[in-house]
């Protein structure tokens, strides 16, 4: 899991809706994802980065080159297959033909061939055995190599190599690890002693003060538009004619160590120890070293195909990506990160209340605290906000009553002595007559110019904790821990029967009127009130959570709904269809979490307003870690991403890696597992997949977020597997990944064997017929004198008929056996991997839809190879059969046990959370330990190691299997014969 954080730069006010759709946001609003050796990188220093046309990202480190698919890192080094000649990778380069080149610290040069193997260029005697700093190709296809402490190398298209030693007075030996080649094939090289250039005629030039450049370390860079930029001594220069003009100055920046121009024309500059600077439409912005970005050299910068900027530092890998939500926290001036309420007043001022008190937004986007002295000299904890008819701001608190402010200045506080019950003022509502209704832990009270008034003496008025209030027309809508009520005209109470609409809702968190209908947010979904009737929308209709806090309609026709598990976006039209009972499909809900820029997925209920739509159209949400905002007009830009390219990454045959690129024929009856990926790096865990196997399935099969597919016992024939990927709400890959292969028949499936068997049957039948005819002729001649013999021959014919029927029965039984073996393990009688995946996928979908727990355990017999090696495979098979019997007896009736291969078994535990699942697995482990299987194993101990994990969120089966497998690996590493739960230390 990548760490996340935010850039550190001055906070800007939200962009207007029209500009937000085109301009990039301020650097402050980008999310940062971070990886290090703890997340799978072999080394924390990223020297170079590249992206190949197929979509893969590549990173050069001192411990090999790393390929990244958005989810996992694959390391290629001296010990891998295919392998490198040296682990210290110096540079990466993608040439105009799309080939990836790689250099290392011993002067080796290689390129990645289409079969996935590294092809090395053999060195000549003059080729230096030194680190190749950088690679670049000119317009004539010549690949130039920059050697550390040496000169230049030139690899011609025909394979010839020329070495160009450093000429006198040219500090080429002190070059910095980057060079740039412009459209005129001039090679620009930055050194520790200024800028040098070799023109296409072979002449060398030095550039210093006479060209407008300072001496010392310089960094040349040719941008995608062909502009030559030079960064040196805190300044940025642009080449023009025969000289350079200073364009930007960054005082105190120190030495620049990398440079990038992005698709918006902004310049990114990496430094030795000051972090990263961006120069663009928002001026000069800094991502300084801090909690996320370490202090140290920024060695490389890369913009990927999706517009994210990758930063390779000496302390890890970082990615800056644009998010839908922007966040404001204590670093922006809030008194505390735990925010409960947000309000925009009639003047457009934004007010934020939370555990840290009351804050007011100031010009420029930051916040400033507004003093609210609480009991004991502390700051009051704010739960609710409202603006009265006269413009005054009303503030409800946790334990200090109600505050009234005018222009940010405290006018009065209403407490217990004034008639406001102490504690928990979670809702406020102002009516048109100038009064303010206050929701307390003992019902509602009303405050007007005459003071505080007790609840009106109306029957059925709620007298417990009030959690929501809204004035709609002349009526007061009241939400409490006991349901919803409406105070009609101040004289009678109408209680809304939420139970009659289903779901069992109790607590009401918010009211929102949309198109004359009132929507009610509760702990069991949404309710719509129309013409006195109620309709409920909950888990059954497709909402992914039970408790929702506030519904806010935007100007684009969507509803934004806050919850403890992220912000949901649903088309209002779809909500109306479900409320009307006319919907034909489940709700299409998009859920946004920390990945999308929220400071926390946990919103806040029982406080108000928990979310608002400001007059500029932006959405603001209170969360447990700050206030968040999003501009729905930017949503199209955020979602408008091309489909991710799909790639097939690996193939396993019966659990063993297969060189699938050069293998087009597979043995029959095998288990084929294909792993694939959609190469997008924005939200890779949300990518959906579908597969189609021509030759077996002519239609696409949706795989959800599952990143692998398995086929067992494919019939003989020719097949083409296609894999396509898609973002949520996006289209599928235009060109699916393809793999064409054949399956050879088993011996009994071969045409010649079947023909021989058929011929044998026909010959046998022919022989029987001939014998039958001969017998008839003999019987006709001897009918009078051999009556007994005739009966005997008739009996033999009947026996032959029975033999024929028995043959047909055996053939039918054999066919049934083959069908059963497709889903059953022949040795143990348990379900096999294919049966397990079908059951597990179905139960996982049911658990995700209903929010039910589901656990999965992987069991592996310890030291099973020793049993096969020392006691024979026959003994090993007997151990497996007895082991399966012991496990079946130790499991619960509702558990699903399968053998997935070798000594590995899986156990699916529906309706069980992780602690209880661990207890079940411990019972299984003890049953194996006490079962006496060592007698079956002829004296060898038989124990089992178990890894168990629980379903989390909407992740697919592959994620759950991976979590359980990692737990199993840890159980093995800690000594075996133990149960290890995922995430357990």
Automatic annotation (TrEMBL):
Co-factor(s): Mg(2+)
Enzyme nomenclature, EC number: 2.7.7.65
Presence of the UniProt keyword Coiled coil in the record: yes
Protein's name in the database: diguanylate cyclase
Residue span, GGDEF domain: 852-984
GO cellular component terms, semicolon-separated: plasma membrane
Keyword Coiled coil carried by entry: yes
Keywords (A to Z) from UniProt: Coiled coil
NCBIfam families, per the entry: GGDEF
GO biological process, one term: negative regulation of bacterial-type flagellum-dependent cell motility
Molecular function as annotated in GO: diguanylate cyclase activity
Residue stretches in coiled coil: 790-817
Region (Disordered): 1-22
SMART domains reported for this sequence: GGDEF
Family annotation (InterPro entries): Diguanylate_Cyclase, GGDEF_dom, Ig-like_fold, Nucleotide_cyclase, Reg_prop, Rev_trsase/Diguanyl_cyclase, WD40/YVTN_repeat-like_dom_sf, Y_Y_Y
């Amino acid at each position: 899991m990548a760490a996340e954080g935010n850039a550190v730069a001055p906070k800007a006010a939200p962009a207007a809706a029209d500009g937000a759709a085109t301009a990039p946001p301020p650097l402050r609003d980008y999310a940062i994802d971070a990886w290090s050796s703890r997340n799978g990188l072999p080394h924390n220093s990223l020297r170079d980065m590249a992206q190949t046309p197929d979509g893969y990202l590549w990173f050069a480190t001192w411990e090999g080159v790393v390929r990244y698919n958005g989810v996992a890192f694959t390391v290629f080094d001296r010990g891998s297959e295919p392998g490198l000649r040296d682990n210290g990778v110096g540079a990466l380069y993608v040439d105009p033909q799309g080939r990836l080149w790689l250099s290392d610290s011993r002067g080796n040069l290689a390129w990645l061939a289409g079969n996935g193997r590294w092809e090395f260029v053999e060195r000549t005697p003059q080729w230096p055995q030194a680190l190749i700093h950088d690679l670049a190709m000119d317009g004539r296809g010549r690949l130039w190599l920059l050697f550390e402490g040496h000169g230049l190398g030139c690899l011609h298209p025909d394979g010839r190599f020329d070495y160009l030693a450093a000429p006198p007075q040219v500090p080429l030996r002190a070059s910095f690890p980057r060079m740039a080649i412009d459209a005129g094939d001039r090679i620009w090289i930055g050194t520790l002693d200024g800028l040098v250039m070799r023109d296409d005629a072979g002449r060398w030039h030095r550039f210093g003060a006479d060209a407008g450049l300072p001496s010392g370390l310089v960094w040349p860079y040719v941008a995608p538009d062909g502009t030559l930029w030079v960064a040196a001594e805190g300044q940025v220069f642009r080449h023009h004619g025969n000289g350079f003009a200073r364009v930007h100055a960054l005082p105190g920046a120190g030495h620049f160590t990398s440079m990038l121009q992005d698709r918006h024309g902004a310049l990114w500059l990496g430094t030795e120890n000051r972090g990263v600077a961006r120069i663009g439409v928002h001026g000069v912005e800094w991502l300084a070293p801090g909690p996320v970005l370490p202090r140290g050299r920024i060695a490389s910068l890369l913009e990927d195909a999706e517009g994210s900027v990758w930063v390779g530092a000496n302390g890890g890998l970082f990615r800056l990506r644009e998010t839908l939500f922007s966040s404001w926290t204590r670093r922006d001036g809030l008194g505390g990160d735990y925010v409960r309420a947000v309000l925009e007043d009639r003047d457009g001022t934004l007010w934020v209340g939370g555990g840290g008190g009351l804050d007011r937004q100031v010009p420029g986007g930051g916040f400033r605290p507004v003093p609210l002295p609480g009991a004991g000299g502390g700051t009051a904890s704010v739960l609710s906000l409202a603006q009265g008819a006269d413009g005054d701001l009303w503030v409800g608190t946790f334990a200090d009553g109600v505050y009234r402010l005018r222009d940010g200045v405290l006018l009065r506080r209403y407490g217990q002595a004034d008639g406001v019950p102490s504690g928990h003022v979670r809702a406020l509502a102002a009516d048109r007559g100038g009064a303010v209704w206050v929701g307390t832990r003992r019902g509602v009270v009303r405050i007007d110019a005459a003071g505080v008034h007790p609840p009106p003496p109306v029957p059925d008025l709620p007298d417990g904790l009030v959690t929501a209030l809204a004035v709609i027309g002349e009526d007061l809508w009241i939400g409490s821990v006991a349901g919803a009520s409406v105070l009609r005209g101040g004289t009678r109470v109408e209680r809304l029967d939420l139970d009659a609409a289903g779901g069992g809702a109790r607590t009401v968190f918010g009211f929102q009127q949309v198109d004359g209908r009132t929507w009610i947010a509760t702990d069991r979904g949404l309710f719509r009130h129309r013409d006195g009737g109620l309709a409920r929308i909950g888990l059954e209709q497709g909402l992914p959570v039970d408790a929702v806090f506030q519904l806010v309609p935007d100007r684009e026709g969507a509803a934004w709904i806050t919850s403890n598990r992220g912000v949901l976006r649903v088309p209002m039209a779809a909500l109306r269809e479900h409320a009307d009972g006319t919907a034909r499909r489940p709700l299409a809900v998009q859920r946004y979490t920390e990945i999308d820029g929220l400071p926390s997925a946990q919103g806040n209920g029982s406080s108000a307003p928990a979310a608002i739509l400001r007059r500029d159209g932006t959405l603001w949400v209170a969360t447990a870690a700050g206030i968040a905002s999003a501009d729905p007009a930017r949503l199209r830009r955020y979602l408008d991403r091309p489909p991710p390219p799909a790639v097939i990454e690996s193939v396993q045959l019966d659990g063993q890696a297969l060189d699938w690129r050069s293998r087009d024929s597979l043995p029959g009856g095998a288990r084929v597992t294909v792993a694939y990926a959609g190469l997008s790096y924005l939200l890779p865990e949300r990518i959906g997949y579908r597969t189609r196997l021509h030759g077996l399935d002519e239609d696409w099969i949706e795989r959800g977020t599952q990143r692998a597919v398995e086929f067992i016992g494919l019939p003989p024939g020719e097949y083409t597997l296609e894999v396509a990927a898609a973002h949520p709400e996006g289209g599928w890959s235009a060109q699916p990944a393809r793999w064409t292969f054949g399956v050879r028949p088993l011996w009994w499936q071969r045409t010649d064997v079947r023909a021989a068997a058929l011929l044998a049957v026909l010959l046998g039948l022919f022989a029987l017929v001939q014998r039958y005819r001969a017998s008839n002729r003999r019987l006709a001649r001897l009918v009078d004198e051999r009556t007994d013999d005739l009966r005997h021959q008739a009996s033999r014919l009947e026996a032959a008929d029975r033999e024929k029927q028995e043959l047909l029965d055996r053939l039918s039984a054999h066919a049934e056996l083959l069908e059963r073996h497709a889903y059953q393990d022949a040795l143990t009688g348990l379900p096999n991997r294919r049966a397990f995946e079908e059951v597990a996928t179905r139960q996982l979908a049911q658990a995700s839809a209903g929010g039910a727990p589901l656990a999965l355990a992987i069991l592996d017999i310890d030291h099973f190879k020793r049993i096969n090696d020392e006691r024979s495979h026959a003994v090993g098979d007997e151990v497996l059969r007895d082991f399966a019997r012991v496990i079946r007896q130790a499991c619960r009736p509702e558990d699903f046990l399968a053998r997935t291969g070798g000594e590995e078994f899986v156990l699916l535990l529906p309706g069980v959370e992780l602690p209880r699942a661990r207890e079940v697995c411990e019972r299984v482990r003890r049953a194996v330990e006490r079962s006496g299987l060592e007698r079956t194993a002829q004296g060898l101990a038989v124990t089992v190691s178990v890894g168990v994990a629980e379903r989390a969120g909407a992740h697919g089966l592959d994620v759950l299997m991976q979590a359980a497998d990692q737990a199993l690996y840890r159980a093995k590493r800690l000594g075996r014969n133990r149960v290890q739960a995922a995430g357990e230390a």
